[in-house]
Specification:
By secondary structure, the protein is an alpha/beta fold. The protein folds into two domains: about 110 residues, Aspartate Aminotransferase, domain 1; about 220 residues, Type I PLP-dependent aspartate aminotransferase-like (Major domain) (Aspartate Aminotransferase, domain 2, 3-Layer(aba) Sandwich). A seven-stranded mixed sheet has the order 2-8-7-6-5-3-4, sandwiched between helices. Strands 9-10-13-12 form a four-stranded antiparallel sheet, covered by helices on one side. The mean pLDDT is about 95.
Length: about 350
């Protein structure tokens, strides 16, 4: 077809499988195994369906105010979007207009290169070292000239957290570029780079409700930065779609933020289960980086990742596997409930005999 030469083609991001069978133990997409906060259910139960005829608040003011109060950050330094994917996508459109490449690790969240291809942003990947650590000094502009930096911390899918002091060095060495720190998993054991936004005007810190706040289905993401960065992003957002956040997301997101006790209890349960499962998998011959997330990136000493992935799948236990260089023998295993993890460990114990 003659029009096809004008089509913008891209190899899309491949999300984790979403099976319809409710009997499946779903450990493949890093969702929270527990329900959202009770305050969220209360909002849902009392929501007036007639309100759905109205446009949502384009500023998502109620949600922004709740985030502002919780994190002690002024409202004009907060940006919200439809999941952190939307927030990151807006950041690409806003900040990555240089002819220099945006840089990020070669093993990281696989949407980064997709957005670069989609928006025609030049990019370069920096290889992780043999221990899956990010060689952060290679992200300094004097070592790798760039038009922007993205670092997931903790990094996915490997789960390793880099100290904030090292992240600050990257920000300080890239004064002419925007540095994005993607903190999707920060609530499971890391220290946020959020305080650094008061010191650096080139830093954007991105978080999400999808993991630790158990609201992946509501699609809520947010970012912190200096007032000027957030203003730039809002200008792009309102040139793209003024009503990105729907009414239920705004209302239930604000409710989730208000229930801090439930949030911290849920995170603690996941962390406790993670640490227990680390010990049990180690006893079965698995090795993995020291995860500070809600998942483990595990490799068995004798059995291939593909074999284990298929064996688990036959038992209706879904984990994530990528048939790629360096990580083909690894499985990314989401931390589920204790009962779910016990079933997985029990099967692996028998299978590996």
């Amino acid at each position: 077809m003659s029009y096809e030469k004008f089509v913008r083609t891209v190899v899309p991001y491949v999300p984790g499988e979403q099976p319809k069978d409710k009997d499946i133990i779903k450990l493949n997409t890093n969702e929270c195994p527990y329900p959202p906060a009770p305050a969220v259910k209360k909002i849902l139960d009392n929501m007036n369906y007639e309100d759905m005829r109205l446009y949502s608040d384009p500023e998502a003011s109620k949600l922004v105010e709740a985030i502002s109060c919780y994190y002690k950050v002024p409202e004009d330094q907060i940006f919200v979007g439809v999941g952190s994917d939307d927030v990151l996508s807006m950041a690409y459109l806003t900040f990555f207009g240089s002819d220099k490449p945006v840089i990020f690790p070669d093993i990281t969240y696989s949407f980064y290169d997709v957005w670069a291809e989609l928006y025609r942003v030049p990019y370069k990947t920096i290889p992780l070292d043999d221990d899956f650590m990010i060689p952060l000094e290679k992200f300094y502009s004097e070592n790798t000239p760039n038009g922007g930096v993205i670092i997931a911390n903790p990094n996915a899918p490997v789960g390793i957290f880099e100290p904030v002091s090292k992240i600050e060095e990257v920000v300080a060495h890239n004064k002419d570029s925007v540095v994005i720190v993607d903190e999707a998993y920060i609530d499971f054991g890391g220290e946020s780079a959020l305080p650094l936004i008061e010191k650096y005007d080139n830093l954007l810190v991105v978080q999400t409700f999808s993991k630790s706040r158990a609201m992946a289905g509501m699609r809520i993401g947010f970012a912190f930065g200096c007032k000027k960065l957030i203003k730039y992003m809002k200008d792009v957002k309102f040139s793209f779609n003024s009503y990105t956040m729907n009414i239920p997301s705004i209302e239930m997101g604000a409710a989730a933020i208000s229930d801090d006790k439930y949030f911290k209890e849920t995170c603690a349960k996941i962390v406790n289960t993670r640490e227990r499962v680390k010990k049990e998998l180690s006893e079965l011959g698995f090795s993995f980086p020291d995860s500070k997330t809600n998942f483990l990136f595990a490799k068995h000493e004798k059995v291939s990742g593909e074999e284990l992935f298929n064996a688990l799948r036959e038992q209706k236990i879904f984990v994530r596997h990528w048939n790629k260089d360096r990580i083909g023998d690894y499985l990314r295993i989401t931390i589920g409930t204790d009962e779910q993890m016990d079933k997985m460990i029990g099967f692996l114990r028998e299978y590996l005999k």
